[in-house]
Amino acid sequence: MTPRREVRSSLTFEVHDPTAFVLAVSVAEGVPTTVETLRVALDGREIRPRPQREAHGTRLELFEATPGVLQLDYTATVVGRSAPASVDALDPVVYLRPSRYVQSDALTQRARDTFPGLEGWPLARAVGDWVHDHLDYTPAATSPTGGAVETLDAGAGVCRDFAHVTAAMLRALDHPARVVSVYAPQLDPMDLHAVVEVLVEGRWVVVDATRLAPRTGLVRIATGRDAADTAFETNTLADVELRAMSIDARADERLVDDHREPVELG
């Protein structure tokens, strides 16, 4: 039986100058929801975003804001599971290329030396285990501009950093891998979360090297090459200040996970 999952995001921004926003906090297209609400308001006055769809069902909300306090509140009730992610013809091309935060070309030899003779799910599992064992989960160690190479040098980071290293090692070994932002019931500490999907025998299966939440409860938000494609907020024209952020994700039953076994995001 699939658990019922309740997810919520609440974001407060201080806007000092006219700014264009792109938000990615809604669950992806194809996630089965029975209730879903999104409210964006500037100093209490409602703003109506322009919804856009990106690749792999990512849903974006576009709008502009003048100076003031911007409040965003999103909630969704997920009942059931989404269909397994499809494999597009270009996926094996796009998700083997190095990207801004996933510098797989710089890590090819290290990956070959670390994981000789492995492929498919055994390789994906071994990479997840290795990243889990070699990185410390340390929020103070992360950088908004650092990628997989910088994370390995630091030996620490947060979920996005774990995901970048995982994806880089897999791409370096010719296994298409992508980063997914998710809501994660039982995540501790609670936040938006980032995991990796790797293409194995025609299926996108999940690797979460942080081991901080059961993969069986994850809810897809955005999918892309790295954190640049899956950021919950992007703004242009002016800088803004994130004053408050509250995330919640819950399931109506206790979730379990065996990281030795492949799991598809749903």
From TrEMBL:
Domain of life, source organism: Bacteria
Domain (Transglutaminase-like): residue spans on this chain: 151-211
InterPro entries reported in the protein's UniProt record: Papain-like_cys_pep_sf, Transglutaminase-like
Pfam families in alphabetical order: Transglut_core
SUPFAM superfamilies in alphabetical order: Cysteine proteinases
Signal peptide span: none
Full protein name: Transglutaminase family protein
Taxon lineage: Bacteria, Bacillati, Actinomycetota, Actinomycetes, Micrococcales
